[in-house]
Amino acid sequence: MNMAATFRKQLLADWSSLPHVILSNILDKLLEPTDHVRFAAVCKEWHALATDYNHTTQRCFKVHPMLMIPSESQGKRKLYSISEQKVYNNFELPQACNSTKRCCGSSNAPGWLVAVDLLGEHQLSTTLVNVFKREVTPIRLPPLYFNAESHWFMVFSPKVILSADPIANPDNYVVVAVYDRVSRIAFIKGGQTIWTYLEVYSFFTDAIFYKRKVYAVGQWGRIKSFDVNSKPVEESLLAHGRYRFSCHAHKGYLVETTKGDLLHVRRFLKQKDVPRHYYFHYEHNEFWTESFKVYKVVFDERDESIVEQVELKSIGDEALFVGDNHSMCVLASNFPGCQPNSIYYTDDLIELGEVRLVDDGSINMDDIFSLIKLKDETISNGPSDMGIFNLEDGSITQHYSLNPWHRNIPPAIWIMPLFNGLG
Fold it and tell me: Which alpha helices (H) appear in 31-173, and where do they start and end?
């Protein structure tokens, strides 16, 4: 054995024999999953320590959402790390994630997303795909009934969420779809062969699994709960009245905080370079997020009805992630570069086509579809309305900027990585 090889062997032995207290302190400072992977690759001793550390500290639940972005290669998508500001060019996503399909990320089942595509007339295919475990076979769900013509697919494709990891819970997970032109609800349980369709027409824009039930919210602030485990399904209107708020929102989201509270997030748009008093304008049809409002949903402990929704001017150290994904929340202090008291958003408002509403509440919901029919094209600025909204001062900054060629493509989405300390 030459001198260089002897030195390397001696150096490796010295690294592997470092006290566990010191190594644990090092792991405490490594906030990025990729850094833990590099740590575990040093030697067998460090690999075992990293595995034990992450299982003990539950670091697998402290992962920063990643952004799935369009790629310059036609029909491809790539992953982008917000905290690292890095595109993972060498990470190849499954074929089911190609850009001709609409995808929706899930936070209850890290690593999973739902790919949706046209299957035939009035039918959609829905496939559960694990992005980070390529050895896991995609789960093809039964066709989902789609009550619209095929050219409306990109406009009204469903938002789909999962209750749990299908691998860990093969017979005990639920898939919920918010779908169709009137935003109805459908669900299916693991192992079932047909969807259960709930005939509710409340223009829902988001849903969440919260405390053993499904909660859904629409643009007008009405919140409903569904007990999908009851027969028949129990439905409860928790926020009463036709208009819960005096102002129409373009999107409503439901997010569970790291403390277990339920937040109602409302998103408002403005039309670019058009006077505020104009409701619609077809020649200059670029619409951008203007602001968000966040409300804490307060429940009555006796009957689980909603007592009130309290507007929050601050969410503290929390950061919310909304878009074509299961709305999620993380503690910003766990991740370098993550902005606290902020909402990270992607463009998921394509369903209004070229006609995006800018309304003070005086426009009736029933008018929306007659306006949509006036134009049958996609929005001119593409799905590029993305950014970080700061709740404290109302400022908006960018987390990722799409290139000009990113027009008429499915939007970027948030996805929760799978991390167990081993990569």
Answer: 33-40, 44-57, 153-156
